[in-house]
Backbone:
């Protein structure tokens, strides 16, 4: 078993009365590429800055390599950070920028030179060492910032939306480069982004945050295919959401959920009959046909949106809500205004617990724990 | 002609003359002084139109040169001391919460809103032989005879620092405030302790502000004379006093002009050296 | 105690005392002046520790009050004229290519590197009865008798403008340069002609710079005395001269202090009104 | 036929010796949503600014509503612009910002008030009129900027990467809102972006620019399915590119192209046998199978990338180059290292003329034109 290199336990960060991070528990494995994903203001950057040491946690434990670091200054922690806006020293050359960490550690000149040049080569910037930061492009600046952090061989590299300022094409290219570097060096990466696609393609695991709370942690596939909360379903990728209640358990894999637009078959969930739940179906798992189908939801074709590789068909159900269906090619013989029946494989209809129910679960669990402690 | 060109012409025909006139107003006298410094002095003031370098030779006569040299040294002392006082002060302000900063700055600038003259006289009153400080020391038997704090080089230097300090604080504060906090974070992140971060990041990045402070303090300090009048009491003469007396009592205008030109040259030379040493070209200053 | 707290303590223990001392150095004399203005004058200079408002009553005696009022009016004139000259000048510079701007600024600042004193004397030489201008006019028979340009209020105002103009240019230039070109583009895009864009966007957004210029010109102008000495030739007295004579020849210290406090109050009052009228609170100034 | 509302003819923009826009010809139809798409520095913003009047064209003709505008100042042109960085007047309230254009036109106070409030309601900002720009969020600022431009009912609205500063989720939402506004008001939109997906989903037509040259103009579908140049194929969406030469015309719809990895069937092109061309196949049109297939390209499975709705399978061909295949679900029974055969429908293999050949065409055409003129 890989032991966790970074552990956060019950970490809280308050600014005055404002709780930016709410009792966060997270373990990051050694050599892992973990992404903190969430919308602006969800607390992801604050979390990263607490690991780096730029922000002090209001309460809780943060440890790196089994050593508690909450009271350590950034310069005492064996983690390095790549900032969103590059933050290159404008008065130093590229070489001096990259060498900074080693110079601080009073390494020998020859060693510094060798390591810096090696690192610049790794980020494909050999020959640029004498330039100043204002003489290179945005993508190059980002690579210098990465080299400057990596040359110190940190245990953990923290990256705060490092690709946010780059344009689409360059961004995709840097994503690949970063992933390659991470695999090559075997350093643990904790990566912050608000871009779901970036998170899905790069990460070993994703930690989805919202309003200071960790909503779900898991692999890209887990997060995408089995979202835990309505927020995760909505934020990661596109999703069609139905509100409903559990009507009947069909077998150990399926159940029937009653919704405004009729009863629909859904993946099994440990729940009770009559419990309110949400159902999430990804647009690419929806199918539709002009013929009537058992449990098929009737809907009218409202629009086709061409989005490059994917064509999105917008369907409107009886209750007025819209569904999105993604296909690679146009569905032949279907026109605007047509009545169609929407269906799907039951395994792709994911039931999601309501927040209020989840809260009940947590309360129940806490009570159990309290009892446990009392019994001890 | 397109409308856009016409509009531009209109702007230039309004602003242009004012611009030229302003340049003339500011640069004209300057040129006149340089020309005058190479002329012969008239018998009863004024100048005669003969080219000569006598005025410049006079500068290097011992009595005059001593005074000028002392002026330069006092101005340098003033500059250095102003920097030493104002840098920590400005740094302290930038470390405060943003909301509190402008208040602190206003606080330090408030006395500056009254004229330097009055503030200087208040120093005279505090420091002279019958002043508050002497009375306090006598009353508590720390001393038996009053001490004359005034009318010496140190009093003049103190006065200079006092008058020009606000000029030193502002540019340094501006430069420090512009420094991206991210750069300090990066430095700490890369293992540099606060002192190193200060020396390697903060200080070099505030160099342009320090440069501006040097100009704003050194330049007026080298030419100031009223401070020497008040706190030097005629005993400590500075180059400024020398210049004034050439234009008034001594009536040697070319000499007065020559001293000015000489001080200007010294100033520019010092700034050039400072610039080279400070490697300010690196900062695009 | 965490290391981070210790580090912060270390910084405060170094910087703190310097900070306090600087505040004392700057604010102390100011407080002393206010106290002194409410005391009784000593017989041979100095003050007696009795509370009285005599000094303030003296201000409103006709002869004194006339001088003070004239000072205020001249300072206001100077400020307005400085603004009228420096605004187009600063505007002109910001309209130039970026690479050319600092050169132009340096050019206008160059004469400022020599002391105001010398530049003032060069004006005396240009303007006096036997000066170049008079000689030119006489030689070409424009006039039959030389004109005395000097030693009147206008000459003093001219001198004040001349000395304080650079102080007015810089803040306005800074404010103008900070204005986002995008805002001017938007205004034009929405159909506003250049004059309207200037009045509705440029001018309001440079108000903070104008405010700073007003402070930097009005404050020293109201207290200046050496300019009146040189260009007013003792005939045009300003409040600054009045203050100085109270501390020197007239030995009425409380009165000198009271005039200072009065002028400070006037200045603050004017700035307050300017602030209200200019609606500067809208700009977060 | 809809008459073009904006016409650009042979428009050139030079900064000194640098030609930023090279002889651009473009017609924008009335009521159309046209997007200028390209990477940073391709000249798209300069083109927009020439239409707005902020930049003067070095040469060429620009007309709006059949009226030449090259020499007109921005305030004389009946077009309005929404800027990337919002550019709200910081010293004015939201109301005053939106009212600015109407105030300039000296409309009556009551009329201004009515129109401004109506427009604020349209962008869902009623109740915000007394706030200052620094008291509202980024998305709200953007909406104010749009309202400020639209309240003047311009013939053409120019938008310079208006959504660049917003985060992903907000951006998607604003895209829908913008599209809705445009349809509702029937105003011509010229939209600048470097985001291909944004361009594809929003536009009626896309004009792709690169290095100051207009590479292709067409509907999203045309641009995506039939790219004219290698650049367009590469920049818009992902693409697999083969270099090859025309070997044989199979019928009026298909031809055979010889490549490093064997002969492949490709859509027909008016070309000559032996001509060098590129072939573009979109990742979602590629299929692969473990069994050998006629004209199937052998390749080895190198990697699976999970990108949310799409799974990308990376295949490596004999010549070392990689192919990307997109699928919605995992391909069962295929593992890393497996040898597979890649195939596709011929209609999805798009032949692309080489630039040098295109240049020859242009030269030939120019010659023809010259002859034509001489003959006149």
Residues:
């Amino acid at each position: 078993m890989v032991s966790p290199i970074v552990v956060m336990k019950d970490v809280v960060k308050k600014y005055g009365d404002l709780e930016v991070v709410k009792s966060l528990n997270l373990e990051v494995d050694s050599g892992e590429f973990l992404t903190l994903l969430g919308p602006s203001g969800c607390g992801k950057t604050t979390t990263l800055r607490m690991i780096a040491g730029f922000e002090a946690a209001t309460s809780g434990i943060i440890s790196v390599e089994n050593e508690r670091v909450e009271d350590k200054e950034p310069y005492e922690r064996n983690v390095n950070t790549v900032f969103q806006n590059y933050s290159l020293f404008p008065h130093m050359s590229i070489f001096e920028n990259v060498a900074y960490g080693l110079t601080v550690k009073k390494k020998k000149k020859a060693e510094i030179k060798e390591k810096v040049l090696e690192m610049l080569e790794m980020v494909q910037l050999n020959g640029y060492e004498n330039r100043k930061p204002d003489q290179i492009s945005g993508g190059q600046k980002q690579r210098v910032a990465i080299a400057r952090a990596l040359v110190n061989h940190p245990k953990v590299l923290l990256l705060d939306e490092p690709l946010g300022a780059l344009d689409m094409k360059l961004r995709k290219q840097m994503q690949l480069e970063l992933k390659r570097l991470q695999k090559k060096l075997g350093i643990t990466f904790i990566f912050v982004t608000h871009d779901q696609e970036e998170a899905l393609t790069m990460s070993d695991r994703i930690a989805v945050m919202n309003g200071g709370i960790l909503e779900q942690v898991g692999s890209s596939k887990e997060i995408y295919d089995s979202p835990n909360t309505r927020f995760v379903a909505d934020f990661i990728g596109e999703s069609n959401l139905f509100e409903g209640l559990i009507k009947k358990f069909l077998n150990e894999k399926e159940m029937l959920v009653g919704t405004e637009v009729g009863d629909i078959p859904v993946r099994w969930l440990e729940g009770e009959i009559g419990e309110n739940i949400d159902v999430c179906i990804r647009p690419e798992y929806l199918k539709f046909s002009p013929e009537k189908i058992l449990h098929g939801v009737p809907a009218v074709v409202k629009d086709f949106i061409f989005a490059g590789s994917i064509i999105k068909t917008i369907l409107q159900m009886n209750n007025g809500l819209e569904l999105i269906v993604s296909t690679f090619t146009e569905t032949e013989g279907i026109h605007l205004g047509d009545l169609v029946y929407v269906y799907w494989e039951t395994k792709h209809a994911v039931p999601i617990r309501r927040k209020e129910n989840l809260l009940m679960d947590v309360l129940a669990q806490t009570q159990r724990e309290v009892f446990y402690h009392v019994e001890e | 002609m397109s409308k856009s060109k016409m509009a531009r012409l209109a702007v230039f025909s309004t602003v242009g003359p004012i611009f030229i006139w302003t340049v003339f107003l500011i640069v004209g006298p300057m040129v006149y002084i340089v020309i005058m410094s190479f002329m012969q002095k008239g018998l009863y003031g004024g100048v005669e139109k003969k080219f000569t370098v006598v005025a410049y030779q006079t500068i290097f006569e011992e009595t005059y040169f001593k005074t000028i040299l002392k002026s330069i040294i006092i101005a340098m002392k003033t500059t250095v001391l102003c920097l030493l006082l104002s840098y920590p002060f400005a740094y302290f302000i930038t470390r405060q919460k943003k909301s509190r900063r402008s208040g602190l700055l206003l606080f330090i600038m408030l006395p500056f809103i009254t004229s330097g003259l009055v503030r200087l006289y208040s120093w005279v009153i505090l420091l002279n032989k019958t002043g508050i400080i002497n009375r306090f020391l006598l009353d508590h038997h720390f001393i038996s005879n009053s001490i004359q704090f005034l009318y010496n080089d140190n009093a003049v230097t103190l006065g200079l620092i006092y008058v020009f300090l606000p000029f030193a604080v502002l540019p340094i504060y501006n430069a420090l405030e512009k420094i991206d906090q991210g750069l300090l974070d990066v430095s700490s992140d890369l293992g540099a302790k606060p002192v190193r971060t200060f020396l390697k990041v903060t200080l070099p990045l505030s160099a342009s502000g320090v440069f501006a402070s040097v100009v704003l303090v050194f330049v007026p300090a080298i030419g100031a004379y009223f401070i020497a009048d008040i706190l030097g009491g005629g005993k400590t003469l500075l180059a400024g006093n020398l210049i004034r007396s050439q234009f008034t009592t001594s009536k040697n205008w070319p000499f007065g002009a020559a001293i000015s030109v000489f001080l200007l040259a010294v100033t520019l030379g010092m700034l050039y050296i400072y610039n080279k040493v400070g490697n300010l070209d690196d900062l695009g200053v």
Summary: Residues 6 and 302 of chain D are 49 Å apart (CA to CA). DSSP finds nine helices and 20 strands in chain D.
